[in-house]
Design brief:
The protein has helices at about 10-20, 25-35, 100-105, 155, 165-180, 205-210, 215, 260-270, 310-325, 375-380, 405-425, 440-450, 450-455, 485-495, 505-515, 525-535, 555-565, and strands at about 40-45, 55-60, 105-115, 120-125, 130-135, 140-145, 185-190, 195-200, 220-225, 230-235, 250, 255, 280-285, 295, 305, 385-390, 390-395, 400-405, 430-440, 460-465, 470-475, 550-555. It has 17 helices and 22 strands. By secondary structure, it is of the alpha+beta class. It has 3 domains: about 10-200, Histidine kinase-like ATPase, C-terminal domain (Heat Shock Protein 90, 2-Layer Sandwich), CATH 3.30.565.10; about 205-325, Ribosomal Protein S5, domain 2 (2-Layer Sandwich); about 375-555, Ribosomal Protein S8, Chain: A, domain 1 (2-Layer Sandwich). The chain is elongated and about 95 Å long. The strands form 5 sheets. It has an 8-stranded mixed beta sheet with strand order 5-4-3-6-2-1-7-8.
Amino acid sequence: MPIRSLPPQVVSRIAAGEVVERPASVVKELVENSLDAGATSVHVELKGGGLELIRVVDNGAGIPAAEVSLAFQRHATSKIQSEEDLESIGTLGFRGEALGSISAVARVTMITRTAEELQGSLVEVYQDRVLRQEPRGCPVGTVVGVHGLFQDLPARRKFMRSPQAEEARVHALVSTYSLAFPTVGFTLVAEGKEAFRSAAGSLREKVLAVWGPSLAANLVEVEGGEGGLTVQGFVSTPQEHRVNRSHQIFLVNRRPVRSALLSSALEGAYQGLLPERRHPVAVLSVALSPGEVDVNVHPTKAEVRFREESRAFTSVQRLVRRALAAYTPVPQVQQRHLYVPPRQGSDTSGVAPAAEAPALDAATGETQGRGAPTTRELLPRLRVLGQAQGTYIVAEGPGGVYLIDQHAAHERVLFEQFLDAMRSSAPQVQSLLEPAVVELSPAQAQLWEECRELVDRLGWQVEPFGQRSLLIRGRPAALRDADPARAFQEFLEGAATELALPSWEERLAATLACHSAVRAGDILSPPEMAQTARLLEGCRESHTCPHGRPTMVQLSTANLEREFRRR
């Protein structure tokens, strides 16, 4: 096949693919342009999750009439003038491709006016063609409308998620920029309804608007600097943590970025303060000389590279640790008990009957009256001896000594019981004396809508209570967390990350089982340990927890005899 130059239209659409991935990508580019223009108010409007319409309105400096059409040309920008400017980028956007790339995959209209002009300009562009350009009366600032995103690209559009899911991405993005620029007011309207609003104010006020009062009340302020690098923001107290890193926001010179280096520094500051596999909440703004950070290493500027990575890592970790050291609350000790919901047909004591051992044919070794042996039938009857290191149940059986991971084993038991309850619509529910109100993020609200029926069948009694607020009237009886609102939020967050399990039914059951199971370090009584072993024997898949970790390891009799030189 001969080498040839691609048509300009194809080149534009390929370039657009680097910048415009989904509606949130468009909103990001337009919001950054508004902020670079000095806007103090940014209004975002969506229809159809942004696929039908995205409108961004700002009160920034505007664009002169003579430069309006030029703004849509590729590599046209007012933010850099020479190659040297790339060494010290001080703006959010600088590539000069945003408007051109967006107009390659959607019809774009812009109305803009500067303070020096008496009237503004309207321009409409699609696929590198100016469809119309005319004077238009308007206030100072810019209004950009993006219509029919990917409408002529069905191959791209089919990869979009539901309008609600795309809206949730935009909501998260607007919330992040609201935290990055506290002195700017942000509004998001979706389908004609206000979804988010945060007035200009302090960072603490912004955190309150984005994350709600309960989380904002458990944050510690971080402020300081060393060696030309300053850090400001808030991190959570050791008592406030999450199952994933979705509540970690890093800003470098006010640019929201993904940074494994900063995340690792943050997590390191909490070393020894958080339970295993839990993550802190943080919004941290790192400021340093523009020449000390490279923001041109990612097509969408979502990642940065520090010139002196070790210094940035050490400074952030030290400043966060210093803030945590100043906050030294006395930990509260809460006594916890093992609770296992009764199975159908059992008594009301909460202890399920042990599974009967299958009868084996003495000649063949196969189960009498059944087909091939199952995992449940292959697990021997065990006699519990005790507990080791507050984590492992020590038991003996016909084949030797067994060490049972109490958390993994109890997790497997509860996982299968929750699945059975969901399929039989007979959950064990504990009603709350006082209903709890929970505020959901857009992603959590979308997940709840998708899995609402399954959530109800797990034992949650939840009903809508305003916009993205829920009222919890009951919770699964096995749930160990004392705060039902927080437990419900983490339940949804955890389910969203259970990607290894094939169905929402299993992902929800696995997340609730993890929250409800006993933990490593919990001291169990002999009856509780015996009960865990008996229930594990009755499981369909007893050798692993829902996440694939082993529930037990065996020290065979032959190995023990060999180690003690008995054979």
